[in-house]
Amino acid sequence: MCEEQIQMVDLHGQYLRFKAEIDESMQAVIDSCAFINGLQVKTFAGHLADYLQVPYVIPCGNGTDALQIALMALELQPGDEVILPAFTYIAAAEVVALLGLVPVLVDVDPRTFNIDPRKIEAAVSERTKAIVAVHLFGQSCDMEPIMALAEARHLYVVEDNAQSIGADYTFSDGRVQKTGTIGHIGTTSFFPSKPLACYGDGGALITSDEELATRIRMIANHGQECKYHHKRIGCNSRLDTLQAAILDVKLKHLEEFAEARRQVASRYDEALSSCDSLVIPARSAFSTHVYHQYTVQVKDGRRNALQCLLKERGIPSMVYYPVPVHHQEAYRRISRVSGSLDVSTRLCESVLSLPIHTEMSPGQQQYIIENLKKNL
Ligand SMILES: *Cc1c(COP(=O)(O)O)cnc(C)c1O
Dihedral through CA 287, CA 293, CA 298, CA 301, nearest 10? Predict the structure, then answer.
Protein backbone atom coordinates (compact mmCIF):
# COMPACT_ATOMS: atom_id res chain seq x y z
CA MET A 1 0.00 0.00 0.00
CA CYS A 2 1.14 3.55 -0.75
CA GLU A 3 1.71 5.45 2.52
CA GLU A 4 0.16 8.74 1.47
CA GLN A 5 -3.50 8.57 0.61
CA ILE A 6 -4.03 9.15 -3.11
CA GLN A 7 -6.80 11.54 -4.05
CA MET A 8 -8.41 12.52 -7.35
CA VAL A 9 -7.67 16.15 -6.43
CA ASP A 10 -5.56 17.25 -3.45
CA LEU A 11 -7.27 20.48 -2.37
CA HIS A 12 -5.73 20.53 1.09
CA GLY A 13 -2.17 20.00 -0.13
CA GLN A 14 -2.58 22.86 -2.58
CA TYR A 15 -4.04 25.10 0.12
CA LEU A 16 -1.08 24.45 2.42
CA ARG A 17 1.31 25.50 -0.35
CA PHE A 18 -0.42 28.89 -0.75
CA LYS A 19 -1.77 29.22 2.80
CA ALA A 20 -0.09 32.50 3.69
CA GLU A 21 -1.30 34.25 0.54
CA ILE A 22 -4.81 32.84 0.70
CA ASP A 23 -5.29 33.45 4.42
CA GLU A 24 -4.20 37.05 4.04
CA SER A 25 -6.52 37.61 1.12
CA MET A 26 -9.50 36.08 3.00
CA GLN A 27 -8.69 37.99 6.18
CA ALA A 28 -8.87 41.28 4.27
CA VAL A 29 -12.46 40.44 3.27
CA ILE A 30 -13.43 39.53 6.80
CA ASP A 31 -11.86 42.74 8.11
CA SER A 32 -13.86 44.78 5.59
CA CYS A 33 -17.09 42.79 6.17
CA ALA A 34 -18.03 43.54 2.54
CA PHE A 35 -19.11 39.96 1.94
CA ILE A 36 -21.42 40.73 -0.99
CA ASN A 37 -20.09 42.62 -4.01
CA GLY A 38 -16.98 43.68 -2.14
CA LEU A 39 -13.98 45.25 -3.79
CA GLN A 40 -12.32 41.87 -4.45
CA VAL A 41 -15.12 40.75 -6.77
CA LYS A 42 -14.41 43.60 -9.16
CA THR A 43 -10.65 43.25 -8.79
CA PHE A 44 -10.73 39.55 -9.57
CA ALA A 45 -13.07 40.02 -12.55
CA GLY A 46 -10.67 42.63 -13.91
CA HIS A 47 -7.66 40.35 -13.46
CA LEU A 48 -9.45 37.44 -15.13
CA ALA A 49 -10.47 39.68 -18.05
CA ASP A 50 -6.82 40.76 -18.44
CA TYR A 51 -5.63 37.17 -18.31
CA LEU A 52 -8.17 36.06 -20.94
CA GLN A 53 -7.71 39.26 -22.94
CA VAL A 54 -11.40 40.10 -23.11
CA PRO A 55 -13.17 43.31 -22.15
CA TYR A 56 -15.88 41.77 -19.95
CA VAL A 57 -15.90 39.16 -17.20
CA ILE A 58 -19.08 39.06 -15.13
CA PRO A 59 -18.87 36.89 -12.00
CA CYS A 60 -21.90 34.88 -10.87
CA GLY A 61 -22.92 32.19 -8.38
CA ASN A 62 -21.81 29.01 -10.15
CA GLY A 63 -21.14 27.49 -13.56
CA THR A 64 -24.69 26.26 -14.08
CA ASP A 65 -26.07 29.75 -13.38
CA ALA A 66 -23.52 31.11 -15.85
CA LEU A 67 -24.93 28.86 -18.58
CA GLN A 68 -28.51 29.81 -17.71
CA ILE A 69 -27.72 33.52 -17.67
CA ALA A 70 -25.90 33.18 -21.01
CA LEU A 71 -28.93 31.60 -22.68
CA MET A 72 -31.24 34.19 -21.08
CA ALA A 73 -29.02 36.99 -22.40
CA LEU A 74 -29.29 35.59 -25.93
CA GLU A 75 -33.08 36.07 -25.64
CA LEU A 76 -33.91 32.63 -26.98
CA GLN A 77 -37.62 31.79 -27.14
CA PRO A 78 -39.35 28.65 -25.84
CA GLY A 79 -39.16 25.93 -28.49
CA ASP A 80 -35.88 27.22 -29.91
CA GLU A 81 -33.26 24.53 -30.31
CA VAL A 82 -29.82 24.46 -28.77
CA ILE A 83 -27.19 22.00 -30.01
CA LEU A 84 -25.17 20.17 -27.34
CA PRO A 85 -22.84 17.19 -27.08
CA ALA A 86 -24.44 13.94 -25.84
CA PHE A 87 -21.33 13.04 -23.83
CA THR A 88 -20.99 15.75 -21.18
CA TYR A 89 -21.88 17.03 -17.75
CA ILE A 90 -25.62 17.61 -17.46
CA ALA A 91 -25.58 21.38 -16.74
CA ALA A 92 -25.98 22.59 -20.35
CA ALA A 93 -28.89 20.26 -21.12
CA GLU A 94 -30.48 21.18 -17.80
CA VAL A 95 -30.55 24.94 -18.33
CA VAL A 96 -31.69 24.50 -21.93
CA ALA A 97 -34.65 22.45 -20.70
CA LEU A 98 -35.38 24.79 -17.79
CA LEU A 99 -35.73 27.71 -20.19
CA GLY A 100 -38.22 25.78 -22.34
CA LEU A 101 -35.67 25.31 -25.11
CA VAL A 102 -35.04 22.00 -26.87
CA PRO A 103 -31.72 20.20 -26.40
CA VAL A 104 -30.48 18.77 -29.71
CA LEU A 105 -27.88 16.12 -29.04
CA VAL A 106 -24.89 15.55 -31.28
CA ASP A 107 -22.15 12.93 -31.01
CA VAL A 108 -18.58 13.62 -29.94
CA ASP A 109 -15.16 12.91 -31.40
CA PRO A 110 -13.87 9.65 -29.84
CA ARG A 111 -10.31 11.01 -29.69
CA THR A 112 -10.95 14.31 -27.94
CA PHE A 113 -14.33 13.64 -26.22
CA ASN A 114 -15.53 17.02 -27.56
CA ILE A 115 -18.50 17.75 -29.84
CA ASP A 116 -17.75 16.68 -33.40
CA PRO A 117 -17.98 19.81 -35.58
CA ARG A 118 -18.65 17.70 -38.67
CA LYS A 119 -21.85 16.42 -37.08
CA ILE A 120 -23.23 19.80 -36.03
CA GLU A 121 -24.32 20.94 -39.48
CA ALA A 122 -26.73 18.04 -39.95
CA ALA A 123 -28.33 18.91 -36.60
CA VAL A 124 -29.22 22.49 -37.54
CA SER A 125 -32.91 23.09 -38.25
CA GLU A 126 -34.99 26.21 -38.73
CA ARG A 127 -35.50 26.41 -34.99
CA THR A 128 -31.83 26.12 -34.07
CA LYS A 129 -30.53 29.25 -32.39
CA ALA A 130 -27.40 28.28 -30.51
CA ILE A 131 -24.61 25.78 -30.00
CA VAL A 132 -23.11 25.03 -26.58
CA ALA A 133 -19.51 23.95 -27.13
CA VAL A 134 -18.37 22.20 -23.95
CA HIS A 135 -14.57 22.12 -23.67
CA LEU A 136 -14.36 18.80 -21.86
CA PHE A 137 -11.51 17.57 -19.62
CA GLY A 138 -9.09 20.43 -20.39
CA GLN A 139 -8.91 21.00 -24.11
CA SER A 140 -10.79 23.12 -26.59
CA CYS A 141 -13.47 22.01 -29.01
CA ASP A 142 -12.48 22.67 -32.62
CA MET A 143 -13.80 26.23 -32.61
CA GLU A 144 -12.89 27.38 -36.11
CA PRO A 145 -15.38 25.17 -38.00
CA ILE A 146 -17.94 25.69 -35.24
CA MET A 147 -17.70 29.49 -35.55
CA ALA A 148 -17.78 29.30 -39.36
CA LEU A 149 -20.95 27.21 -39.28
CA ALA A 150 -22.50 29.48 -36.65
CA GLU A 151 -21.84 32.51 -38.78
CA ALA A 152 -23.25 30.91 -41.92
CA ARG A 153 -26.41 29.74 -40.13
CA HIS A 154 -26.81 32.77 -37.83
CA LEU A 155 -26.36 30.83 -34.60
CA TYR A 156 -24.98 31.90 -31.26
CA VAL A 157 -22.10 29.99 -29.72
CA VAL A 158 -21.74 29.58 -25.96
CA GLU A 159 -18.51 28.00 -24.75
CA ASP A 160 -18.80 26.03 -21.51
CA ASN A 161 -15.27 26.50 -20.26
CA ALA A 162 -15.71 25.13 -16.73
CA GLN A 163 -13.11 22.40 -17.29
CA SER A 164 -10.66 24.09 -19.64
CA ILE A 165 -10.00 27.64 -18.46
CA GLY A 166 -6.46 28.58 -19.44
CA ALA A 167 -6.36 26.42 -22.58
CA ASP A 168 -5.34 28.06 -25.87
CA TYR A 169 -7.02 27.46 -29.21
CA THR A 170 -4.98 28.03 -32.39
CA PHE A 171 -6.79 29.04 -35.59
CA SER A 172 -5.53 27.89 -38.99
CA ASP A 173 -3.99 31.32 -39.61
CA GLY A 174 -1.89 30.95 -36.45
CA ARG A 175 -4.01 33.25 -34.31
CA VAL A 176 -4.23 32.03 -30.69
CA GLN A 177 -7.15 32.72 -28.35
CA LYS A 178 -8.02 31.53 -24.85
CA THR A 179 -10.98 29.13 -24.64
CA GLY A 180 -14.11 30.91 -23.51
CA THR A 181 -13.31 34.04 -25.53
CA ILE A 182 -14.07 32.72 -29.02
CA GLY A 183 -17.86 32.27 -29.00
CA HIS A 184 -20.42 34.99 -28.24
CA ILE A 185 -20.38 34.12 -24.55
CA GLY A 186 -18.07 31.92 -22.49
CA THR A 187 -19.05 30.49 -19.13
CA THR A 188 -17.01 28.94 -16.37
CA SER A 189 -17.29 27.40 -12.92
CA PHE A 190 -15.04 27.88 -9.91
CA PHE A 191 -16.25 24.70 -8.16
CA PRO A 192 -13.42 23.47 -5.85
CA SER A 193 -12.11 20.76 -8.19
CA LYS A 194 -12.07 22.85 -11.39
CA PRO A 195 -8.83 24.21 -12.89
CA LEU A 196 -9.54 27.68 -11.48
CA ALA A 197 -11.30 26.93 -8.23
CA CYS A 198 -12.50 28.57 -5.05
CA TYR A 199 -13.55 27.12 -1.67
CA GLY A 200 -17.24 26.89 -2.44
CA ASP A 201 -19.42 27.80 -5.40
CA GLY A 202 -18.58 30.39 -8.00
CA GLY A 203 -18.81 31.06 -11.72
CA ALA A 204 -18.41 33.71 -14.39
CA LEU A 205 -19.46 34.79 -17.87
CA ILE A 206 -17.01 36.03 -20.46
CA THR A 207 -17.81 38.18 -23.49
CA SER A 208 -16.38 40.77 -25.85
CA ASP A 209 -19.81 42.18 -26.70
CA GLU A 210 -20.71 45.27 -24.70
CA GLU A 211 -24.46 44.88 -25.17
CA LEU A 212 -24.37 41.25 -24.05
CA ALA A 213 -22.22 42.23 -21.07
CA THR A 214 -24.80 44.82 -19.99
CA ARG A 215 -27.63 42.29 -20.34
CA ILE A 216 -25.70 39.61 -18.48
CA ARG A 217 -24.93 41.96 -15.61
CA MET A 218 -28.56 42.97 -15.40
CA ILE A 219 -29.91 39.40 -15.52
CA ALA A 220 -27.52 38.20 -12.80
CA ASN A 221 -28.78 41.05 -10.60
CA HIS A 222 -32.57 40.53 -10.61
CA GLY A 223 -32.93 42.12 -14.04
CA GLN A 224 -32.33 45.51 -12.44
CA GLU A 225 -31.37 48.49 -14.55
CA CYS A 226 -30.91 50.44 -11.34
CA LYS A 227 -31.92 49.53 -7.82
CA TYR A 228 -35.62 48.52 -7.57
CA HIS A 229 -36.24 49.10 -11.29
CA HIS A 230 -36.54 45.73 -13.01
CA LYS A 231 -36.23 45.88 -16.75
CA ARG A 232 -36.22 42.13 -17.41
CA ILE A 233 -36.74 38.89 -15.54
CA GLY A 234 -33.46 37.98 -13.96
CA CYS A 235 -32.08 35.94 -11.13
CA ASN A 236 -29.84 36.42 -8.12
CA SER A 237 -26.44 35.02 -8.91
CA ARG A 238 -23.34 36.48 -7.27
CA LEU A 239 -19.78 35.47 -6.56
CA ASP A 240 -19.05 35.83 -2.82
CA THR A 241 -16.33 38.33 -1.98
CA LEU A 242 -14.47 35.66 0.03
CA GLN A 243 -14.42 33.38 -3.00
CA ALA A 244 -13.24 36.22 -5.23
CA ALA A 245 -10.38 36.89 -2.81
CA ILE A 246 -9.30 33.24 -3.02
CA LEU A 247 -9.65 33.19 -6.80
CA ASP A 248 -7.54 36.31 -7.20
CA VAL A 249 -4.66 34.49 -5.49
CA LYS A 250 -5.17 31.26 -7.46
CA LEU A 251 -5.42 33.06 -10.82
CA LYS A 252 -1.79 34.16 -10.42
CA HIS A 253 -0.81 30.49 -10.28
CA LEU A 254 -3.16 29.17 -12.97
CA GLU A 255 -0.46 28.59 -15.60
CA GLU A 256 1.76 26.89 -13.03
CA PHE A 257 -1.16 24.62 -12.00
CA ALA A 258 -1.76 23.64 -15.63
CA GLU A 259 1.95 22.93 -16.09
CA ALA A 260 2.00 20.70 -13.00
CA ARG A 261 -0.92 18.66 -14.35
CA ARG A 262 0.68 18.52 -17.80
CA GLN A 263 3.74 16.91 -16.22
CA VAL A 264 1.59 14.30 -14.53
CA ALA A 265 -0.14 13.69 -17.87
CA SER A 266 3.16 13.23 -19.72
CA ARG A 267 4.27 10.65 -17.17
CA TYR A 268 1.00 8.77 -17.63
CA ASP A 269 1.35 9.05 -21.42
CA GLU A 270 4.86 7.66 -21.36
CA ALA A 271 3.98 4.78 -19.07
CA LEU A 272 0.67 3.84 -20.66
CA SER A 273 1.05 4.52 -24.38
CA SER A 274 2.27 0.98 -25.02
CA CYS A 275 -0.66 -0.69 -23.21
CA ASP A 276 -2.86 -2.39 -25.80
CA SER A 277 -5.87 -2.53 -23.52
CA LEU A 278 -6.01 1.24 -22.94
CA VAL A 279 -6.42 4.28 -25.14
CA ILE A 280 -4.64 7.27 -23.68
CA PRO A 281 -6.19 10.74 -24.13
CA ALA A 282 -5.40 12.41 -27.45
CA ARG A 283 -3.93 15.90 -27.71
CA SER A 284 -5.56 17.99 -30.41
CA ALA A 285 -3.30 19.82 -32.82
CA PHE A 286 -5.37 23.01 -32.38
CA SER A 287 -5.53 23.18 -28.57
CA THR A 288 -3.28 23.11 -25.57
CA HIS A 289 -4.44 20.76 -22.81
CA VAL A 290 -4.81 21.83 -19.18
CA TYR A 291 -5.71 18.26 -18.07
CA HIS A 292 -8.64 18.93 -15.81
CA GLN A 293 -8.98 15.17 -16.17
CA TYR A 294 -6.68 12.46 -17.48
CA THR A 295 -9.22 10.15 -19.06
CA VAL A 296 -8.33 6.82 -20.60
CA GLN A 297 -10.60 4.42 -22.48
CA VAL A 298 -10.47 0.87 -21.19
CA LYS A 299 -11.02 -1.72 -23.90
CA ASP A 300 -12.93 -5.02 -23.91
CA GLY A 301 -15.55 -4.06 -21.31
CA ARG A 302 -12.96 -4.22 -18.52
CA ARG A 303 -13.48 -0.68 -17.19
CA ASN A 304 -15.58 -1.49 -14.11
CA ALA A 305 -13.40 -4.44 -13.13
CA LEU A 306 -10.26 -2.33 -13.44
CA GLN A 307 -11.80 0.43 -11.35
CA CYS A 308 -12.59 -2.10 -8.57
CA LEU A 309 -9.08 -3.54 -8.64
CA LEU A 310 -7.56 -0.07 -8.38
CA LYS A 311 -9.86 0.78 -5.50
CA GLU A 312 -8.68 -2.31 -3.61
CA ARG A 313 -5.15 -0.92 -3.91
CA GLY A 314 -6.21 2.48 -2.53
CA ILE A 315 -6.28 4.17 -5.93
CA PRO A 316 -9.35 6.29 -6.66
CA SER A 317 -10.65 6.77 -10.20
CA MET A 318 -13.85 8.26 -11.56
CA VAL A 319 -16.21 7.63 -14.44
CA TYR A 320 -16.91 10.97 -16.11
CA TYR A 321 -19.58 10.32 -17.37
CA PRO A 322 -21.42 7.02 -16.91
CA VAL A 323 -24.66 7.93 -18.75
CA PRO A 324 -25.00 9.96 -21.97
CA VAL A 325 -27.60 12.75 -22.05
CA HIS A 326 -29.92 10.80 -24.40
CA HIS A 327 -30.16 7.95 -21.89
CA GLN A 328 -30.93 10.18 -18.90
CA GLU A 329 -34.47 9.67 -17.65
CA ALA A 330 -35.24 13.39 -17.47
CA TYR A 331 -33.88 14.16 -20.94
CA ARG A 332 -34.73 11.07 -22.99
CA ARG A 333 -38.08 12.29 -24.15
CA ILE A 334 -37.52 16.02 -24.38
CA SER A 335 -34.29 15.96 -26.41
CA ARG A 336 -33.97 15.75 -30.15
CA VAL A 337 -31.28 13.34 -31.26
CA SER A 338 -29.30 14.18 -34.36
CA GLY A 339 -27.62 11.23 -36.07
CA SER A 340 -25.99 8.35 -34.29
CA LEU A 341 -24.80 8.92 -30.73
CA ASP A 342 -22.86 5.65 -30.65
CA VAL A 343 -19.54 7.26 -29.76
CA SER A 344 -21.07 8.94 -26.69
CA THR A 345 -22.74 5.72 -25.60
CA ARG A 346 -19.53 3.74 -26.06
CA LEU A 347 -17.44 6.29 -24.15
CA CYS A 348 -19.78 6.11 -21.17
CA GLU A 349 -18.97 2.39 -20.96
CA SER A 350 -15.20 2.70 -21.38
CA VAL A 351 -13.89 5.98 -19.91
CA LEU A 352 -11.94 6.11 -16.68
CA SER A 353 -10.41 9.27 -15.22
CA LEU A 354 -7.23 8.72 -13.22
CA PRO A 355 -5.98 10.88 -10.33
CA ILE A 356 -4.33 14.05 -11.60
CA HIS A 357 -3.68 17.21 -9.62
CA THR A 358 -1.14 19.91 -8.86
CA GLU A 359 0.29 18.15 -5.79
CA MET A 360 0.89 14.66 -7.18
CA SER A 361 4.32 13.27 -6.36
CA PRO A 362 6.25 11.05 -8.81
CA GLY A 363 6.19 8.30 -6.14
CA GLN A 364 2.41 8.37 -5.88
CA GLN A 365 2.10 8.31 -9.60
CA GLN A 366 4.53 5.41 -9.95
CA TYR A 367 2.37 3.43 -7.54
CA ILE A 368 -0.74 4.17 -9.63
CA ILE A 369 1.01 3.23 -12.88
CA GLU A 370 2.43 -0.03 -11.51
CA ASN A 371 -0.96 -1.13 -10.23
CA LEU A 372 -2.68 -0.14 -13.43
CA LYS A 373 -0.25 -2.13 -15.54
CA LYS A 374 -0.47 -5.15 -13.24
CA ASN A 375 -4.23 -5.26 -13.61
CA LEU A 376 -4.58 -4.63 -17.34
C1 LIG B 1 -18.76 21.82 -13.25
C2 LIG B 1 -19.37 22.04 -14.56
C3 LIG B 1 -20.51 22.85 -14.72
C4 LIG B 1 -21.30 23.38 -13.59
O5 LIG B 1 -20.65 24.17 -12.69
P6 LIG B 1 -21.24 24.40 -11.22
O7 LIG B 1 -20.40 25.52 -10.72
O8 LIG B 1 -21.09 23.14 -10.47
O9 LIG B 1 -22.66 24.81 -11.38
C10 LIG B 1 -20.97 23.07 -16.00
N11 LIG B 1 -20.37 22.52 -17.06
C12 LIG B 1 -19.28 21.74 -16.96
C13 LIG B 1 -18.66 21.18 -18.19
C14 LIG B 1 -18.76 21.47 -15.71
O15 LIG B 1 -17.69 20.67 -15.61
Answer: -120
Domain 254-375 has CATH 3.90.1150.10: yes
CA distance 117 to 141: 8
At 50 the three-state DSSP class reads helix
The Å distance, Cα 133 to ligand 1 centre, comes to 13
pLDDT (tens digit per residue) in 299-344: 999 999 999 999 999 999 999 999 999 999 999 999 999 999 999 9
Q: How far apart are CA 158 and CA 216, in angstroms?
A: 13
Per-residue pLDDT of 23-68, as tens digits, reads: 999 999 999 999 999 999 999 999 999 999 999 999 999 999 999 9
Q: Which atom of ligand 1 is nearest to the CA of 64?
A: 9
Which CATH entry fits the domain spanning 12-251: 3.40.50.10490, 3.40.640.10, 1.10.287.110, 3.20.20.70?
A: 3.40.640.10
**Residue type for position 352:** L
Separation of CA 163 and ligand 1 centre (Å): 8
Q: Which atom of ligand 1 is nearest to the CA of 202?
A: 7
Which of 160, 187, 196 gets mutated to test ligand 1 (max ligand atoms within 8 A of its CB)?
160
Ligand 1 near 355 CB (within 6 A): no
